[in-house]
Structure formats: structure tokens, C-alpha cells
Amino acid sequence: MKAGLSRRDFLASTGMGMSLLGLGLLGVRDGMANPFQPRPSHFHAKAKHVIHVFCNGGASQIDTFDPKPVLRKYAGKRIPIHLKTERETGGAFPSPFTFKQYGQSGIPISEIFHHLGEHADDLCVIRSMHTNVPNHEPSLMMLNCGDSILPRPSMGSWINYGLGSVNDNLPGFIAMCPGGVPIKGGANWRSSFLPGIYQGTHIDTKHKDLEKLIENVRNRHQTDASQRSQMDLLGEFNRLHLRKRPGDAELQSRIHNYELAYRMQMEASDAFDLSREPESVREAYGKSVQGRQLLLARRLVERGVRFVQLYHGAGQPWDDHDEIEKGHRKLAGESSQGLAALIGDLKQRGLLDETLVVWGGEFGRTPTVELPKPGANQGKVNGRDHNNHGFTMFLCGGGAKGGTIYGATDEFGFAAVEDKVHVHDLQATILHLLGLDHERLTYRYSGRDFRLTDVHGKVVPGLLD
Amino acid sequence: MKFVIRRSFSLACLFACLCMARGSVDYAKERLGHWAYRLPARSPAPETSAKWGANPVDSFVLATLERNGLSASPLAGKRTLIRRATFDLHGLPPSFAEVEEFVNDSSPDAYRRLIDRLLESPRYGERWGRHWLDVARYADTQGYNLTRSSKYPFAYTYRDYVIRSFNEDKPFDRFILEQLAADLLEDPDKRNLAALGFLTTGERFINKPHEIANDRLDVTTQGFLAMTIGCARCHDHKADPIPSADYYSLFGVFMSTQEPKAEELPVIGKPASDEAHRKFLAERAKLERRVEDKLSEVFRKARKEWPGVVDGLVDYLGKNRLSKQENLRDYRGRPLRKGHVIFLKDFVSGQQGLKNPFYRLLHLVYKEDADKRIPHLVRSFRERPDVPIPLAASLKSLEPATRKKVYEAYRDLLKRAFAAPLAAEFARIRSLVDGVQFEKAFGTVDKNGLVERNERVQLTKIKNGFPKLLATEGAPPRAMVLYDKANAYSPYVFLRGKPENRGPSVERRFPQVLSLRDEHRSFKQGSGRLELARAIADSGNPLTARVIVNRVWQWHFGQGIAPTPSEFGKMGMAPTNPELLDHLAIWFVENGWSIKKLHRYLMNSATYRQQSLAVGKSVSSDEANRFLWRMNPRRLEWEAMRDSILHVSGSLSHRDKGGLPVDLLALKERNFRSVFGFLDRERIPGVLRTFDFPTPQVSCEARVRTVVPQQGLFLMNSKFVVESSKRMAALLPEGSPEARVRALFRRAISREPTSSELSKSKSFILRSSSSRQDGTSFSSWDALAQVMLMSNEFLYVD
């Protein structure tokens, strides 16, 4: 991959113009040549940060936010709507979970996410999501990067490119995943042709020890003052080096990156140290890995990190082809309390208005039962296949319209039919909530202007407050 | 503009799909329709208006530059050139002395001789072999595995083979043949058998044969042909003329092979030392004894259990499918050994069962098909004089009329016979069931068959010691070969990729769009691997030479002429300079598929020797440098970076013969180059991933290049870099600060400091020597040395 960045375009696109041609001479700490410098959005907007809770593997809409009691009538029988998904599915498979309506809006929520009930009036549940392909890899790429095949930059990178950061000392985009990485690994948070500094920083939240979370984050061999003077000399050498190679954006971005790394040593110790939270707060989030991740997300957002993405776990934990009742109950059980605590906590701190919480998987699951297939599932006939035709995601805070159910699937929950929202539409809407026009947030690469939504996507007004 | 291109592109896809759906692919037409399927065309070096360049490569490049309104950059200076060439061919920096000598060598062929010298060094193969290992998705482990050790003890012999092949400049067509079919070539040099590691060092997918074959198919077709045939596993290829049948034709080839166990692989060399070998043999004997001891223990236990379980075993005589039943239990709910049941079945059904006066009836019943003859059998049996009295009595009173009833009668009798306290009237039965005859028969039983689950786990633990032992210095190196099965696998198309959904049968053969010769239509010899290898290494194959020259180009220039080096199909990107690519492909074959000649040809071009500065009017029109109006600056990959840090801090050792993999992150007294590092497919260390090391799950066509703060943190705080800085500082000569700073610059970046760098360094030393009273053992010279290792000049090559 080439860092195909022309300095001219870079400066122009970051709104810094041509006045900084002598940029090699300007210190990063002068705050001028800093690609993370906060930049004005295209228009005024409430949201400044995003917390994306990613149910990687694909959460089932029918078992969470899109109840379809009619399936009970058809249990085990073919339903009139049968669409092609990754694998063969059979008769209707009613949800094993009960639903209850919550709040003034009366949004129905499955028992497995009952904690969220208290925030029902803040949720904007989109029941009519759809994407292109019923396979993990392309759908992850579509949701994260706006294209299922071609290596495009991820949403977190685009948003950092568009808005910069309000904290110089932490990466603007942090992707958390306990125990490893999701399918497709780093491609999920890549910057692709956008400058490398916008790439997500992956953190394995299985660990509690800071040095295991971020390797080598502690300077143990010299005092901070000594290291500072060392970094200053390094900066001087690197700028002398850059002066002879004007226009090399990668060299420039490395200079900045050292400074970021330097400051991360201090800032990260603080941001990632959950022991600084009162016991009651940690208790509220729950002391599971998910609870910890969610609390970390709040601490990061509080410190100005633009985009925090939380994967449930390595691989594709939500992918319940078998035993969906057991599986989904466990997965939701791990995250429901923390999610509710996060929303409540953000609200209490007055951060919910400026923080957009996004919840969902790369696709949903079928209302029909997956049929046994040797090697693919355990043949227990109690799980659901991938479903790209219709699924549910929810938004909360950040200017999203609370207490809303938007769109609908057919009567069985198989495909989105009413007010359909494609992943590109959601992306356009997320950018809109952040004050970015998805058609104007472009980057010129290889002779063409690229954008997150490619040539697609429409902002969905019904999702806006 | 671009959108128009995209749209017409997808129309082309759609058209291709429709054609194939009708089952009427016109391969002759397809061969002409897409650049990569056409044979490379010879075109004369184009005329250009500017006079520039050293060889035809430059004419092709310049013509394209001119067509796009671009102009070439000036040639780089000698200091830049030697640094560029040394990193490029060795992945290590030139020494200060080498730079000076080259700069002062004014003879016209100094540069040419430099390239020759670099190509002669064993360091070359260690660098370029690693490039190929990216393509070969090389690793030292099998990937996820439940209980068995997942380590490949001999994967390193493939790595060493690759390094040696590059160093020996093995013709690339031969390199192909060996990697796919070394076992089928007449070659007295047994070391080349290790080439098959190309196929066998991939992931094992918990031993799923279809997945293993798919992985091998994938690495072969992407690696050599830049075709994504793997896409045709479930349906005809969406864009290229590759029907599903082509996938299964090749699948058949890879399904027709098998591999010996690690300890039966062919030995291809000597252990590191005789003493180590003796130790290895002793350890192995010890392990074998432990296995034998464990098996004897199981055997003794099983023997002891016999009288207590024999009644329950009888029930299983009537049951056929034992293999499916994991936990055998008797009528009392007690666990049974499968080995016991099998023994009893064999015993009863054989001659011994017939001769044994107790078992005889069971033997007859066992052999009898019709249930209705059972009463007759029972009656005539019980009249025999040698039948033990309690048995005869029991049969008389029960009169069992079905097989099941017979078994029940025996079960009951045996239960009573072995019930404590032992009753005298059953003594004869006990001796017939548990006596001399039994003892003799049981003594010959396969002990492994008696092993039950818990014991198997213990046994596996012991046996895991063998691969571990094989991965020690005293074990002779072995080649990870595979052989053809005695009977080749006959492939069928699996409809939608599902094995249970058999479609038409297909022949093992070469993909149809590439089948230019009769022998491609059906492979006749064994699995067809050698025929496949020959078809790939055929100079008439339009892809092979193009693919490798494009890869070599990419490894030199940072990007391929065709920007997607493992995808030359219609989904890939078209070459930016197709005439040049064709020229190189033809030139390469005509020059004996020699990679080293290709290096010389490319590196002596003016294109390669251009400056790398992004200045001038070309910046705006071709910022991505697709047409090579300048050289691309390069950042050291993980390997080159680590090796260079070790090199300049005096901790790097060389091992020309290769050997066992080593831990890359532990800084020892002496350290080997990164290409020799141990790679666990499942657990690539975070630091390697941070520096964009590709995960060896699939073939890697090109490394990505990211800039993330963790890279900075590694260079700032890791023990590896901190210790290396100290070592480098310790190597500086005594003397004035100026002399020491000069020595440091020479050592780290092979040049003298500028006056500004000199004064900054000196004042850093002065300033921090006084302030650095922090009680740590990290001196200001250590800190300055570390600055050099962190500097962009150290990590980037112009």
C-alpha cells in the first residue's frame, strides 16, 4: 500500500492551505502541522464522538429489538418469505425470548437486553437495515469501510480525517477487541489511502495491565525529562532529514507519530487505568470484559477520542449458527448491563448529546432455522443463519432521534420492507450527525475523489432529532 | 471518468457471468480478450523524444512518462545508490567504509560491480527468500489444533531451501517444479525435497482434507499464476473464465496426495553435531520407552478389568457400529473399553470361539443370520458333553429362542461366575473365559486398541515429545514432503461448494483458459502434480513469467507494474505499463528464468537509479507515482529494521546453512537474522503485527505500510531497542565527544554528521550528562545512540 498522499492535497483537504509550505520547520507541538488538529465540521452538529459497539458475527434482530410473534404460529413450518442466505435454512424459528415494552415510547426490548429498558426513550431503533452479502468478511468491510471488496479507509479513519482530534495525546481512533482481533483483523480499522495516522489503534482489552494493553507504553529506562530531551533531539534530526525531502507526507506523519507515542505514555496510563474510577461506577458497568471495555470507551471519549469501536471478541462471537438461545443469552448477558450503564453514565455527565452510540452487527440473522450441514454447524437445528436482507441496529445520543422505531421488516422479520436503510445510508447519517456531509468528505487519490459512501448513501432524516 | 470505467467493467463481469452460466465459454476468445491471458507480445523499445536511460527498461518507462506528460527525475547520488542497493538486496545497511569506497571509486563500472558483489553474498538469499516466503504463507505451525502439538518440526528446511535457491540463482521454472513436485523429479540432491514445504507448511484446519487441498490450490494458483481460482469453489468465477469444474480439476490433484508422519520424513542432511545427535537418540529412546511403559500399563489394567466386565461385553456382540459410539457402557452403566469389545468379537467369531466349549454357542449365534434357527442351535449345543454344567442347565431352563435371549443368558451366567465370593460350580467357566487360552489370545492384542480416552490424553502428552524432540539440534533435518496416493482421487464438482452435493465428475487437468497443449486436458501420471508443475513452468504459459517479473519489480520498486501482483484476472488492476511487463516476461524466459540476471537488468536501469524526491511538476499529476517518474522511498520492513538494529549494535550473527527457528524478540548475545525467526501461524507477536508483518493464513501479495504510535513506542521503550542502543554506544571508541559522535553516525547511518548535527549532538551530550542524574544506567551516549536508531534516516531508504 502506498501512502498516496500529496502534501498539497493533504493541506488543502485539512483546511490548512498553502501557507505551511515550510512545514518541515514547524514543530508538531506548535500545533500547526498537526493532522489531528481539530477542524470545523461542514455544518453545526451535536455529535463529536462515536462509540460503536460492534456485535461481530451478527446479532439476531428477532431475538433483540424486532419481535415477530407470528413466527410462533409457523414454528417449524415454511414461511411464505424465504430468501437466500449463506446456508440452507428451514422452517420458522420463533424467538425463545420474551419481549417487553419500555418507556413512554413503548419500544419492545428482548429479555436478554432488559437493562436497556430504562433508556428506551433515548434509543433510535432502526429495524430496516440491509446490506449486500450474507458473508462476514464483505459485510464487515461494508459496514466499516463502505465497500465489501476494495480496500477502502474505515469510517473511524474518515471521521478523524474530517474532524481531527481534540486530544493530541491519544490516538483519535481506538479499536478494542478482547482476546485478539475480529475476522479481517486490521482491515476493519485501516486507513487505506488516507494518511496512516488516521488508522485505528487496536487494543486487546483482555488484558488489564496497561503494558499488556499497549506494549512498550512505559518508559522504564530513563526519566521523563531525559526522554523529553531525547525526543526533542530526535525531532530536530527528523526535521533536518525532512527538509531535504520536502513533500514526503509519510516522514512528516512519522514525526507526528513519535510525539503521539511520547504523549501516549502519560495519557494512556491515565485513560486506561480503571482503578481511578470509583468502585460504584465499575460496579455499574459490571466487571466483565465487556463492562471494562464500555467503561474504557467512556473514559476515552471523555478525553476527546473521536471514534471508539468495541468488538465483542476475537473472531465472530455473535455468529450463532447453533444454540442461539444459549449463545445470544450469554453474549447479551455480557454486554447488556454495561451498555445501559454507559448510556446512563454519558447522560449523567452531559456527554450523551455529543456522543453517538451505535449498536449492531455486520448483518442480522434469519427468522428460519439453519439446517444441519456437516462441517458447518453442529447440526443441532437450533440456530440461525446470516441475514443481509433485514436487520436491526440502534443509535443513541449524539443527535439521533430517541424513543423511535424506524422502518420495519416484513411480518416474519426476514427482509427490510419499510423505510429501508442501507449501510451506506447509515454511514451518511452518522457523518451527518457529526456535521459532515458524506458527499463532501472526500479524499483525492489516484486521480479520483473517494468518499466513505462511494457513490451511494442518503442521509435518513427520520433518524435525526 | 472513473465511474464510467467502473460501470463498463461491471458490465463486462455481468457478460462474463452470463456466458458461463450458459456453459459456453469460448476459451480461444477469452484468451484474446484479457491482457493477462494473451501471450506476452514482443514490442521494440519505443522511441522517445528525450534521450534518457541505460537499457530498454528505461525506454518503456520513459515512453509512458512522456505519454502522460511526466518526466523522469535526475539520477540519485552515489551515497543514495549504495544505501538503496544494499538495503534492497541484503536488507542491511552498507558500512561506512563500503560507502566511502564506492563513492571514491570513479571507474565507470563501479555501480555494476557493486550489484554483482551484493548478489554474491549469502545475505542476498536471506533477504529475497523472505519475500518469497510472504507469497508462500510460510509458518512453523499448523494453525489451530485441539490437542496435538501444532508445531512443524521441519518447516525450517523449506525456508532454508528457499534461501539457498535464491542464493544459487536457481532458474525460476526449476524452482516451480521443485516446489510442486520435487518428489517426482530425478534429482540426486535430496536437499531439494524440502521444496515441497511450499505445499505442506500451510495451515491444517484441524486436519480437514478439503480445506488443506483448498489452501494448497490457493497458494499455487495465486502464487505462480496470480489467478484467484479459489473463487470458483462454490460457483463459476464471477469475473474470469474459470468454471467451477476448473477448481475441482485442480482440487483433485491436491486431494491425491498424502504425507508421511514427521518421524518418517526423508532425512536430507546431518544433525548440527554428533554430540547433539547422540543426545537426541538417547532422548528418543527414553520417549519410546515411556510410550511402551504407558501402553503396558494400559494393557495390565485392561487384563485386570476383564473378569469384571466380560458379562457386559456380551451385549455388544450383537451391535455392529462401535466406531460411532464414544462412551461404551454396560447394562450396569459401567464404562467399557472399546478394545475389550473388539477383542471379544474377534475371539468369539474366530476359530478359538468355535473350539471353546463355553463360547461355541456364541460363535454359532454370531455367525447365524436367521433368528429362527437359534432354538435348534441352543438345543444341539447344550447336549454336547463338554459344555459346562451351569451353562447347560441355564440353557435348558431358559430355552432362549432369540439371539438376544442367548446373550442375556450368557450375561447372567458370567455375572454369577465372577461374582464375589467365587462359587466353585463356576470354576470351569472361569477357566474357559479367563484361563490359559484367553491369556494367550489377549497377549497378542494391539495395545493401542485398548487405550481409552483419558489414557489417550496422557499418551498424547508423552507422544507430543516426539515432534518437540524432532525440533532439536540433534535431530537430522528432514524434508516436509508429500507423495501421490496409490489411487488418485477422482474429483467431482461439489455444487455450491458442498461435498454432499455432487455434480458432474471432472478430470484432473489444467484450467481451461490456460490449456494450450493437449497434455493439459487430462493429467495421466498419478496425482498429476508434475504435469501441473510443468504446465505452470511452461514458457508458453502467458501468466507465469509475467507474474514473477512483476513480483520482482514490486520488491524493487515498492509497487508492481501490475498493481495487484496476485490477481491478474479481471478483478485485478491492469498494468500501468503493459509493454514493459511483456518485454520483461519475454526477456526473463530468454535469460534462463534467472532472477539474479533480472536484478542486474532492473537495477542497472536509470529508472531504478532515479532520485526519490517528490518534487517537480509530476507531483501533481501522478502523486501515487504509478508511472515511476521517481524512485519510491522505502521504509524498512520489520525484518530489515530488526536486522539493521542488530547489525549496527554489533549483535548480529550469520548462519549460512540455516537451521532451527529462533525467538525474534529475545535479545541474546548473538542473534540471527529475522528470516530465521519462529513463526506461529496463530500467534504472530504483536510487535511484528505492529510493523505490518503479514499473517501467514493466506498468501501475501504485498505488505501494507502503516504508521501507528505503537511503532514509536517499540523504538522508544522496548528492551530490545534500549539494550541495542547501549550496545551500540559501548562500541564507540574512547576519545573526544566529536570523535565519538562521528563514529556513531558512521556506524548507524554510514555517513559523517553535518556540522549542524554534530553541534546538536555534542550539546545534547553536554546538556544531558549534567542533567541525567536519574540513577538509571542509561547514559547520554546510550540516549544519543537510541536517537539514531529511531531516526527516520535509519528507517527510510531514499
Structure write-up:
- The complex is a heterodimer of chains A (465) and B (798).
- Chain A is α/β, with parallel strands linked by helices.
- Chain A has a single domain, classed as 3-Layer(aba) Sandwich (Alkaline Phosphatase, subunit A).
- Chain A is 29% helix and 17% strand.
- Chain A contains 11 helices and 18 strands.
- Chain A has helices at 7-13, 70-74, 136-145, 155-163, 210-213, 224-243, 249-271, 279-285, 289-302, 324-348, 423-433, and strands at residues 49-54, 89-92, 99-102, 107-110, 123-130, 173-176, 201-203, 307-311, 355-360, 364-370, 384-387, 391-396, 404-406, 408-409, 416-418, 421-422, 442-445, 448-451.
- Residues 1-34 of chain A have low confidence and may be disordered.
- Among the domains of chain B are: 131-265 and 481-541, no CATH class; 288-459, no CATH class; 638-690 and 707-798, no CATH class.
- Helix content of chain B is 51%, strand content 2%.
- Chain B contains 37 helices and 6 strands.
- In chain B, helix 6 (110-120) runs antiparallel to helix 28 (595-603), helix 18 (389-398) packs across helix 19 and helix 20 (427-434) packs parallel to helix 21.
- Chain B is elongated.
- The model of chain B is unreliable at 1-22 (pLDDT under 50).
- The interface between A and B is large, with 69 and 69 residues.
